[in-house]
Please model this.
Amino acid sequence: MKDEKETREKLLASARQEFLEKGYMQASLRSICKNAGVTTGALYFFFQDKEDLFTQLVEPTLQKLREYIQQHFQAEQEEIKSGVPDETEDADDIKMTRQILHAMYQNYDILLLAITRSQGSKYEYCVDEFVAIAEQHYRFLADGMAARAGMERIDDYTIHWIAHMQIDVFVHMLQHEPSEERAQQYIAKIVNYLVAGWMSLFVK
Model:
């Protein structure tokens, strides 16, 4: 069992490097096995194919992010349902954003794989998945806040654009700022900017 676990970990480490260097399309299973010091037969003992190998690398991290984001969104939706404003909402937004950002930088290379090196795999459009999650959430919030303010429903295009903008903040940070420390320095200002823009939509 110990040997099997070590072999699997060697394959994952080798695959991680291969995918980062060459991308999903150009990555070679033969090279992955060679660099891991195992046979191709060993690889197929643990993984069905290249797609499965890539999935085992990126899916746990993506799922963890989904859960973080859904928890945050659920809390905001409960506030809308209750009709009682949360005076600590801005601070909570920043706290949760910092937690998500930390989780992302803890898995920096894996997320770069999913975002920038996944062309040709089922994760090629993973960013769009997160935009869709955010869009559904902002649609819910916007409808509730517009109704509370006695305003007309905000159009779908605007909601989609806002959701994209929020997710793009994280994507851009990962692609252009390798230091978590610097990313954390920037994020509070960015969140304050986004929240202010969002709230301005509900002022008559």
In short: The CA atoms of residues 19 and 27 lie 6 Å apart. The two ends are 65 Å apart (CA to CA). Residues 50-82 form the longest helix (33 residues). The chain has a mean pLDDT of 91.
